[in-house]
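Thread amino acids onto this structure.
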C-alpha cells in the first residue's frame, strides 16, 4: 500500500478518515486499528507514518523518495518506534522502555510515533502502564495500536483511542489479484478462501509444502469414502508426517473444512461458492457417502478438532478421533 489512492480499493472508509486527519492537520494522539489479519492494518500504519514524517508530501501523499520515507520502509526511522510481542506477550518492560524513549526530544523533529502490533497481547501490567501513557498525551505524539481482537483491549484504553474498524477484504477481489499475479484459477480460489492477505497467499502458492496439502486432503477424503477401515492408517502414515507442527495441522484442517463446506454447498446448489472447482466429479461421488446433514456435522467435528489443537491436546489423538468421527 504505497499511496492513499490504493486505500480506496482496500479500506476506503478508514483510508479516507486517516487521509483527512493529515490534510486537515487533526491527527489524533492515539488510534486503534482493529480487523482481521491481512486487512492492511500494518501497511496503512506505515503509510500514515510516512505522511506524518515526510517533508515533501503533496497533500496527504508522501513522496516515497525522501530520507524519512526510506528510513520508515527499512525500520530505521529514529522517531518511529515499533513494539511487537516478546514471545507470547507484550510486557510491561517494553512499555516502560518506550516511555523512556519518549522523554527525549525527537532526533529529527518534535514529533514521535509508536506502533504497537498485536496490542491485545499486552499483559495486564503492560496495559495499565500504556494507559497511564495515554492519559497524558503529548501534542506531538501519535500512537497506533494494531489488533485482530479489539474486544480484548481494555475499555479505558479504547476510550482514549480513535477506533478504526478494518473491513474484511472481498474474497473475489483477492482471487482476481492472485490470478493477475499468475496463480491458477483453482489455486486462487483455494488461497483466497484461506487468507485475505495477498502476500501470504502468494507465499503459500510458491510453497512446496502447501502444494501437497490439497492432494493429501483429497486423498484422505477418498480413503474415508472408499476404504474407511484404512482411515487411521492413512492419518498415521501420510497425514501426520506432512503436518508436523500445530500450525500446519490447523492449515490442513482449514482445507479439510473447505471440502465439507463444498459438500454442503453442493446440496444447496451454490455452484458459485465452490472452492474445489476442479474436483466436481470427486465431490459428486462424496455426496453419495455424506448427506447434507452429515456434511454439516463433519464441519462441527473439524471445528472441535481445531479447538483441541489450540488447547495443546496431542495432535495424533485429535486426528485419530476426528478420522473416526468423519468415517461414521
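Threaded sequence (328 positions):
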Amino acid at each position: 500500500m504505497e499511496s492513499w489512492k490504493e486505500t480506496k480499493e482496500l479500506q476506503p472508509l478508514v483510508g479516507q478518515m486517516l487521509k483527512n486527519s493529515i490534510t486537515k492537520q487533526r491527527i489524533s494522539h492515539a488510534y486503534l486499528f482493529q480487523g482481521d489479519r491481512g486487512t492492511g492494518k500494518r501497511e496503512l500504519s506505515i503509510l500514515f507514518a510516512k505522511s506524518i514524517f515526510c517533508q515533501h508530501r503533496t497533500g496527504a501523499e508522501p513522496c516515497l523518495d525522501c530520507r524519512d520515507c526510506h528510513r520508515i520502509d527499512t525500520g530505521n526511522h529514529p522517531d518511529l518506534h515499533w513494539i511487537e510481542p516478546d514471545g507470547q506477550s507484550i510486557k510491561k518492560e517494553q512499555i516502560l522502555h518506550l516511555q523512556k524513549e519518549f522523554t527525549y526530544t525527537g532526533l529529527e523533529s518534535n514529533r514521535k510515533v509508536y506502533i504497537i502490533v498485536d496490542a491485545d497481547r499486552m499483559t495486564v501490567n503492560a496495559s495499565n502502564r500504556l494507559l497511564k501513557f495515554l492519559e497524558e498525551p503529548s501534542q506531538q505524539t501519535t500512537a497506533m495500536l494494531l489488533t485482530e481482537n479489539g474486544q480484548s483491549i481494555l475499555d479505558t484504553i479504547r476510550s482514549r483511542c480513535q477506533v478504526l474498524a478494518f473491513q474484511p477484504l472481498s474474497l473475489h477481489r483477492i482471487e482476481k489479484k492472485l490470478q493477475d499475479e499468475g496463480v491458477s484459477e483453482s489455486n486462487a480460489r483455494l488461497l483466497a478462501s484461506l487468507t485475505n492477505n495477498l502476500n501470504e497467499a502468494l507465499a503459500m502458492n510458491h510453497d512446496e509444502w502447501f502444494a501437497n496439502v490439497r492432494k493429501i486432503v483429497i486423498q484422505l477424503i477418498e480413503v474415508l469414502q472408499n476404504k474407511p477401515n484404512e482411515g487411521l492408517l492413512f492419518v498415521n502414515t501420510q497425514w501426520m508426517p506432512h503436518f508436523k507442527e500445530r500450525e500446519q495441522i490447523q492449515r490442513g484442517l482449514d482445507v479439510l473444512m473447505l471440502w465439507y463446506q463444498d459438500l454442503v454447498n453442493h446440496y444447496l446448489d451454490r455452484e458459485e461458492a465452490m472452492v474445489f472447482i476442479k474436483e466436481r466429479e470427486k465431490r459428486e461421488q462424496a455426496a453419495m457417502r455424506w448427506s447434507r446433514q452429515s456434511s454439516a456435522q463433519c464441519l462441527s467435528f473439524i471445528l472441535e478438532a481445531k479447538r483441541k489443537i489450540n488447547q495443546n491436546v496431542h495432535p495424533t489423538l485429535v486426528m485419530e478421533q476426528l478420522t473416526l468421527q468423519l468415517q461414521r
